[in-house]
Design brief:
Elements lengths: L3 H5 L16 E4 L2 H6 L7 E3 L4 E4 L4 H23 L1 H7 L5 H28 L5 H14 L3 H4 L4
Keywords: Membrane, Transmembrane, Transmembrane helix
Protein name: DNA polymerase III subunit gamma/tau
Length: 152
């Protein structure tokens, strides 16, 4: 007999749902992808006949990657907020110096977005920890120091 608690946690027909599966995802890839052994979705294991099992990125890795991506976006916001005080504190004398300084500020604001995109693009066929490491390195390298030290 099923208790009321167990009955509340189940839905009639759960056992016959063909979409609910705890088995690994299988996919068919091209021959060149099978030869290199790389896939866009994660690590894979070849089972023969062109069908292989693909391990998807785990939920912890997705949360960590999301947090690091959010920190990169926040660092871009920090660089954008520090543009005004930086321009007031450091005023180049000539036109070339002013142009290069302004261009450097634009690159400082854009660099976290470029790093985020490059990390996702360049590590798409690598294990999840490579992407996490690339995002963590970018988060440390692109810290908006003028904003953090309080340049006003």
């Amino acid at each position: 007999m099923i208790s009321d608690d167990d009955e509340a946690l189940s839905w009639a027909g759960d056992d016959s749902d063909p979409t609910a599966s705890s088995a690994p995802v299988t996919s068919r890839r091209s021959r060149s992808a099978r030869e290199t052994g790389k896939d866009d979705e994660g690590e894979s294991t070849d089972t023969g006949d062109g069908v292989e099992t693909v391990r998807q990125t785990g939920p912890v890795a997705l949360v960590v990657m999301s947090l690091l991506g959010g920190l990169l976006v926040l660092s871009s916001i920090g660089w954008a907020l520090s543009i005004g005080p930086l321009q007031a504190a450091f005023r180049p004398i000539d036109l070339l110096g002013t142009t290069m300084f302004s261009l450097g500020l634009v690159f400082a604001v854009a660099s976290p977005f470029v790093w985020l995109g490059a990390s996702i693009w360049l590590t798409r066929s690598r294990p999840a920890w490579h992407r996490v490491a690339a995002l963590a390195i970018g988060t440390v390298l692109l810290v908006p120091w003028p904003y953090l030290v309080g340049l006003r």
